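Q: Structure tokens for this one, please.
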Amino acid sequence: MPTTGEPTLELRVAVNGLSLAPGQIIDTALLGRAGFTRLPAWRRWLRRLPGGFGYWEAIDPTVHCFDGAVEIYASRQGYLDPDRQWGTALLLCEENGRVRWFDIRVIEGVYSACNFYERFVEAASRQFGEPDQHLDQDSAWQRNGLSVAAHLSDDALHASFHVEWAGAGGNNNNGGRGATR
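A: Here is the predicted structure, written as tokens:
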């Protein structure tokens, strides 16, 4: 805990039951059992992700964060109206065998993207204090080598939550992603 009385940024998430935290050593066998697949080179190229990092992706995962206060999940039931269906994705960046950063996304969530964004920002504010940066649909917290950011797209159909650890080798290259959008 910092001596200034500021809350320390610590965030552990559970992805399909697998507990992950920024800076944590990665067990690739456990990632596979939790529904992650290694991103092939052609998909890294399409997304313009830089080399030198390992990337893992989970499609439609269920993610719990802030000690269970926020649950982000997909809804793909065919009997629901299209505006009641949405997807989720999690992209994890690995550097030197550790979690460097991860992005949690809510995709095509007509109602859910805004709902998940508001829940995430509320829980993050309770845990970390007021955001260091806050502009309408963007909020970010940065302390002690950890960055947490939340973004809601202009059309409110997509939300993304980015968590990044700057401790991997003291490298500030964020693998092509930023803590703020």
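A few notes: Confidence is low (pLDDT under 50) at residues 1-6, 169-181. The chain has one domain: 13-165.
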